[in-house]
Amino acid sequence: MDARRIEADTWVLVFHKGDDPVSLLEGFAREQGLTAASFTAIGAFRGAVLGYFDRDRREYDEIPVEEQVEVLSLLGDVAVGEGEPKVHAHAVLGRRDGSTVGGHLLRGEVWPTLELVLRAAPAHLRKRRDPETGLALIDLSA
């Protein structure tokens, strides 16, 4: 992954073949000391694992995507959870036949590229574990 700051609060990150954008973006946020940010991205994956939250089981059902797909839309945020920057991302992926699959991005393997614009927010955002769902959700009162 390569990164370039284009404004005081904005970076462009270019992910390369084989990169996992979730883990690399969390590492980048940690290195930059980011506590709140939003991002958008487009590109392609060789494969990915999406998630759909099962509210009864309080965990994600995995949706494996085992084919080359276009990243039609990748949107998300970065906030601090358990003392570390955490990425929360949703993706819509386009298949060869024009159909799509979408969900929470658990992991992906970039191929050939993923171009992401990251904007830091001027505030600190914290996540707290919601007792009802078990999910780490942004807590605006923190």
Task: Briefly summarize what is shown.
By secondary structure, the protein is mainly β.
Chart the SSEs and their pairings.
Blueprint lengths: L1 E6 L2 E7 L4 H12 L3 E19 L4 E7 L3 E13 L2 E11 L5 E21 L5 E4 L6 E4 L3
Antiparallel strand pairs: 1-2, 2-7, 3-4, 3-5, 3-7, 5-6, 6-7, 8-9
What does this structure look like?
- The protein has one helix at 21-32; strands spanning 2-7, 10-16, 36-54, 59-65, 69-81, 84-94, 100-120, 126-129, 136-139.
- By secondary structure, it is mainly beta.
- It has one domain: Hypothetical protein, similar to alpha- acetolactate decarboxylase, domain 2 (60s Ribosomal Protein L30, Chain: A, 2-Layer Sandwich).
- Strands 1, 2, 3, 4, 5, 6 and 7 form a 7-stranded antiparallel β-sheet that branches. It has a two-stranded antiparallel ribbon with strand order 8-9.
- The radius of gyration is 15 Å and the shape is flat.
Number of domains: 1
Order of helices and strands: EEHEEEEEEE
- CATH topological fold name: 60s Ribosomal Protein L30, Chain: A
CATH class designation: Alpha Beta
Major sheet: 7 strands, antiparallel
| Helix count, DSSP H or I runs of 4 or more residues | 1
Mean pLDDT: 95
